[in-house]
């Protein structure tokens, strides 16, 4: 087996990723090494690339970003019991996490080291491109729905059918939302969600009972009315601008007073095109701080607990095993959980990862941007 690896590395702020040759080491205890055949991109990847100076300060460039991989196991470390060489897997790559800080564990390369606990076998009939859409979107949804400090919902498999409890997922057609709808339904909840009208059928196919246009003036009233009659079990806010309507829904609907927040209060997308970053970044930070402060005051005054999710934090608690070991492999195998949103492959090879980041940043709708390797 050759020890050569290639990476699509971030080399400097605002510079395109560079394809580089890199060494390859063996996986450590409770780790596996995967030959990646498909990787997907997430907003955080281009946010780090365009605004990284104040985010993920611990990352020393060159570094390998990326969270979503699907491929084949080529080596297993000591203590690994769930996987063997040759298994087809998907996994959450956590190399950019502060307490990991290891480019070998980033997604945008040919070979990635994964924690065994953050990988799942994929069924024979499922493509790597389809499987790669899952890891971070699914993990973020699971953290929001199931972590004890977030919505603390019942787990999939412990469902009480017809319990009449409703989960609100604001932003159901996002990657995080597509997973959240399915997880909440698998746990026995009725789901009320929001999306653009073009995606109403899409979120219904994932299991949502009712869907409303988040851009409508009546969205908060519509969602609140759809919850009435049952008990609100929790509210998951996804998308820039989602926090405030979700706090208002949790206040008006009664029931659970918890709102899990996936998105920062302001969008970073415009930053990439800015030529005056030294002015724009402090301005954006100021808007971020002031919007977050006013949101937290609004929530507190209404008696609502609103907390931000950290989508990789399931690596440190029971939600990681719940998802990657206990739930996902079986649910993919029996077809009850659909890898969503569907992949849009923008190219093959590491040189196309930058195109994938640019495509994601330009805006997607109910699709996940994927690169074949
Ligand atoms: N906290 C974490 O750890 C974590 C992890 C992953 C993602 N996130 C955040 O979660 C959000 C979603 O990420 P993603 O990768 O799932 O997004 P994505 O798939 O790239 O989001 C695209 C979708 O956003 C929807 N959308 C746009 N504006 C919206 C709004 N105001 N309200 C609700 N939906 C809206 C669009 O829906 P339509 O096409 O139907 O209009 C589109 O389908 C982002 O803000 C991302 O930064 C956070």
List the helices and strands and how they pair.
Elements: E1 4-9, E2 18-23, E3 31-40, H1 43-51, E4 68-76, E5 88-92, E6 111-115, E7 119-121, H2 128-131, H3 135-146, E8 165-170, H4 175-186, E9 190-194, H5 200-205, E10 210-212, H6 219-227, E11 231-237, H7 243-253, E12 258-261, H8 277-301, E13 305-308, H9 318-333, E14 343-348, H10 353-362, E15 368-372
Parallel strand pairs: 8-9, 8-11, 9-10, 11-12, 12-13, 14-15
Antiparallel strand pairs: 1-2, 3-4, 3-6, 3-15, 4-5, 5-7
Helix pairs in contact: 3-4, 6-7
Bound molecules: NADP nicotinamide-adenine-dinucleotide phosphate.
Overview of the molecule:
The protein is of the alpha/beta class and 373 residues long. It folds into 2 domains: 4-133 and 342-372, Quinone Oxidoreductase, Chain A, domain 1; 138-308, 3-Layer(aba) Sandwich (Rossmann fold). Helices cover 31% and strands 23% of the residues. The protein is built from 10 helices and 15 strands. It has helices spanning 43-51, 128-131, 135-146, 175-186, 200-205, 219-227, 243-253, 277-301, 318-333, 353-362, and strands at residues 4-9, 18-23, 31-40, 68-76, 88-92, 111-115, 119-121, 165-170, 190-194, 210-212, 231-237, 258-261, 305-308, 343-348, 368-372. Strands 3, 4, 5, 6, 7, 14 and 15 form a 7-stranded mixed beta sheet that branches. Strands 10-9-8-11-12-13 form a 6-stranded parallel beta sheet, with helices on both faces. A two-stranded antiparallel ribbon has the order 1-2. Helix 5 links the parallel strand 9 and strand 10. Helix 3 packs across helix 4 (175-186) and helix 6 (219-227) runs parallel beside helix 7 (243-253). The longest helix has 25 residues, at 277-301. It is globular, with a radius of gyration of 20 Å.
């Amino acid at each position: 087996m050759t020890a050569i690896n290639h990476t699509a590395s971030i080399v400097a702020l605002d510079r395109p990723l560079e394809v580089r040759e890199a060494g390859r080491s063996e996986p450590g205890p409770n780790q596996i090494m995967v030959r990646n055949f498909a990787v997907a991109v997430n907003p955080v990847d281009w946010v780090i690339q365009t605004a990284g100076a104040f985010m993920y300060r611990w990352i020393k460039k060159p570094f390998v970003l990326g969270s979503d991989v699907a491929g084949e196991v080529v080596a297993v470390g000591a203590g690994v019991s769930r996987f063997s060489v040759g298994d087809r897997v998907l996994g959450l790559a956590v190399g950019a996490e502060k307490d990991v800080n290891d480019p070998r564990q980033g997604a945008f390369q040919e070979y990635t080291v994964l924690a065994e606990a953050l990988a799942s076998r994929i069924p024979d009939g499922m493509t790597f491109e389809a499987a790669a859409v899952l890891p971070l979107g699914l993990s973020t949804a699971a953290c929001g729905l199931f972590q004890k400090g977030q919505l603390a919902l019942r787990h999939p498999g412990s469902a009480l059918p017809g319990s009449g409890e409703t989960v609100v997922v604001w932003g159901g057609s996002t990657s995080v939302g597509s997973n959240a709808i399915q997880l909440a339904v698998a746990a026995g909840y009725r789901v009320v969600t929001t999306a653009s009208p073009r995606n109403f059928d899409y979120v219904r196919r994932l299991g949502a009972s009712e869907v409303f246009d988040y851009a409508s003036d009546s969205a908060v009233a519509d969602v609140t009315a759809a919850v009435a009659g049952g008990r609100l079990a929790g509210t998951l806010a996804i998308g820039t601008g989602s926090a405030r309507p979700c706090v208002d829904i949790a206040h008006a609907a009664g029931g659970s007073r918890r709102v899990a927040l996936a998105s920062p209060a302001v969008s970073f997308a415009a930053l990439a095109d800015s030529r005056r970053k030294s002015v724009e970044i402090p301005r954006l930070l100021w808007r971020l701080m002031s919007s977050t402060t006013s949101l937290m005051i609004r929530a507190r005054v209404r008696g609502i607990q609103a907390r931000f999710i950290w989508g990789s934090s399931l690596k440190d608690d029971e939600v990681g095993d719940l998802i990657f070991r206990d739930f996902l492999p079986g649910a993919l195998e029996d077809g009850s959980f659909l890898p969503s949103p569907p992949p849009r492959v923008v190219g093959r090879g590491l040189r196309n990862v930058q195109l994938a980041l640019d495509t994601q940043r330009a805006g997607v709708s109910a699709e996940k941007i994927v690169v074949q390797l």
